[in-house]
Amino acid sequence: MAEKILLERNIKEACGIFGIISRDSSELARKVYFGLFALQHRGQESAGIAVSYQKDKAVYYKNMGLVNDVFKEAELELLPPTTVAVGHVRYSTTGSSNVVNAQPVVFYGKKGRMAVAHNGNVVNANQIKAQMLDKGHIFQSSIDSEVIAARINYHIKDDLVGGIVAACEEFLGAFSLLVMAEGKLVAVRDRHGLKPLIIGKTPEGEIVAASESCALDAIGAEIVRDVKPGEVLVIDENLEMQSRFLKNIEPKFCIFEYVYISRSDSVLNGVSVYEARYKCGRMLAELFKIDADLVAGVPDSALVCAKGYSDVSGIPMVDAISKNRYVGRTFIQPSQSVRENSVSLKLNAFRSNIEGKRIILIDDSIVRGTTSKKIISLLRKNGAKEIHMLVGSPIVGHPCYFGVDMQTREELVGGKITKDDICKKIGADSLNYIPLECLKTACGGGGFCAACFDGNYPDSVTDDETGKFIFE
Q1: What is the rounded CA–CA span in Å between residue 472 and residue 129?
Q2: Which of 171, 255, 348, 367 could form a disulfide with 322 if both were Cys (CB 3.0 to 4.6 A apart)?
Q3: Among 110-119, 336-345, 458-467, which range has the highest average pLDDT?
Q4: Using alpha carbons only, what angle is made at residue 124 by residues 121 and 130, rounded to the nearest 5 degrees?
Q5: Cβ(118)–Cβ(17) below 8 Å
Q6: Positions of E strands within 217-259
Q7: At what angle do helices 273-287 and 303-313 cross, to 10 degrees?
Q8: Which residues are bridge partners to 4 per DSSP?
Q9: By the 8 A CB rule, do 211 and 16 touch?
Q10: Annotated catalytic residue within 15, 400, 423, 438
């Protein structure tokens, strides 16, 4: 018997960007479409594609909704054959959810028609925008991505790349960018490399840039390498690549990409997301030996972690929860009020598998605690005898200002109460988290931004610089 629960996930993901360039003109928009489809998990509010023609002109289409809803055959036919194209799927960390704020940002600039696709959150964009408004500049949207585009155009003299570098030196926070101009594709990561950006090559020889390697797989492209932190990588019409670098490079990759945001079949900075999550599960089994009958993971991102725990502990992994795969994911809805009223994500509990059983329940993270409480309540209603919760990340006690939509300490259960109090709040028999150092080891041991766990931010941030609606 399966009993349903409405699940309101408490974190939203990062935007997804995809770009492609070729020597010969072809229907690249269709390849961008497939790439965005593979990145749909990173944003479900809007989708857009822009294509270049005659080097200084561009055609684009963007609208609200999922990729396959925005782009039917008629919309794809509006986008002509091209040598350069960029695309974007969005969820809003800055700016409200409407079509004006959809990306790519396409504009007439000093190099003709240009386009910018952005993943991240520029925390000083509000101050930059205010300065530009004082000088007479106008804006149509309420997103930081338009500020990025405007500042790039402002700094362009004769050299496109010089303008991009000068603008990016001013930005604080997270930004992975794709810029389409002059028949070129320019891929940029901020000096910390907070958000992912990877380069690939198709069998036809086209060069691709994408947020995750799973998007390269979608069009049969092979991984070439990651864009480096602080790198401004220019790919010209001959597919030759040249790099310039920003100043003060200090790698601090967002560790939450491994925990939750990225797809498990992606590879980030040379590290398999699947392997990182699996290692976390194995470490949890070594750290927390619990007498139980079965292990269960919360779909989808915690399933790999649960497998790791089961393999080491010898306790069988059983389907306790089933996810309805024919509905959307409420945790990337644009506001908490919409998430709470949405029925776009449901979980089912299997009574026959869990009745009378002691369960080790594994999830990737606990943010507000409301989801964990509902799941545990559901399992108890279906006969679970004990529920011991393990989490594949440390306590989330600090806001994220760099592109994950958990921007105030007040909304984080780990920012207000102790671990024991969280355990009582969610109704578990026990609760334990993986230590941060273990998580870092599982993710390759490199330099990370783990500010949501330890409060150590890579850039100085104040509350008045942040907030989703600061431009509205």
Answers
A1: 12
A2: 348
A3: 110-119
A4: 120
A5: yes
A6: 222-226, 231-235, 241-245, 253-254
A7: 40
A8: 348
A9: yes
A10: 15
Q: Which amino acid is at 300?
A: D
Domains in the chain (CATH in brackets) are 2-7+275-445 (3.40.50.2020), 16-261 (3.60.20.10)
Closest CA to 396 of 9, 11, 2: 11
Q: Which residues contact 433 (CB under 8 A, 6 or more apart)?
A: 390, 391, 393, 394, 395, 419
**CB within 8 A of 132, min separation 6: which ones?**
139, 147, 150, 151, 154
CA–CA distances in Å: residue 179 to residues 69, 87, 132, 231, 291: 25, 11, 21, 13, 54
- For 208, the 3-state DSSP assignment is strand
Query: Using H for helix, E for strand and C for coil, what is the string for 436-469?
Result: HHHHHHHCCCCCEECHHHHCCCCCCCCHHHCCCC
What's the pTM value of the predicted model, to 2 decimals? 0.90
d(CA 185, CA 135): 30
The predicted-structure confidence for 189-233, as pLDDT tens digits, reads as follows 999 999 999 999 999 999 999 999 999 999 999 999 999 999 999
Residue ranges with strand state E in 94-210: 105-109, 112-122, 173-181, 184-189, 198-201, 207-210
Is residue 15 annotated as a catalytic residue, yes or no? Answer: yes
